[in-house]
Request: fold
Amino acid sequence: MEGPRAHREKLADFNLRQAFAGDPQRFAEFSLDDCGLFLDYSKNLIDTRTRELLVGLVMEAGLQQAIEGLFDGALVNASENRPGELVGRVHDGLWRGYTEKPITDVVNIGIGGSFLGLQLVSEALLPFA
Reply:
C-alpha cells in the first residue's frame, strides 16, 4: 500500500471537476454535519486514500489523546512548562473579552485559500499567551 509521499505524487494530476463528474456521491462522502457544525471538504484535492492516510497520521500522532489532555488541563505547552488552562477558563467564563463579558463566540471570516486566517488568530491571541 502506498505511503503519503507516493500518494501525493499520484494526486499531482488530480482534477476536481473530473472527481465530481466521476462520483455523484463525492459531496456526501467528503462532508460532515455534526453538533451544529457543517464541514464540506469535498472541494479539496482529496480522495478516499488521502483521507485514510490523514486519519492514520492522526492516530499515529496521538491527536485524540492530546485533545483530551488539553481539555483535562494536562501539560501541553512544554516550552513554558504550564498546562493548557485557557480552554477551561473560557468554558468557565473566567477568560473574558474586552467588554468584560464571558467569551461565547469566535468569528473568523476569510475568503479561503490562504493561511492568513490562521495567522490572524495566532497574532491576535499572542498577547494572551
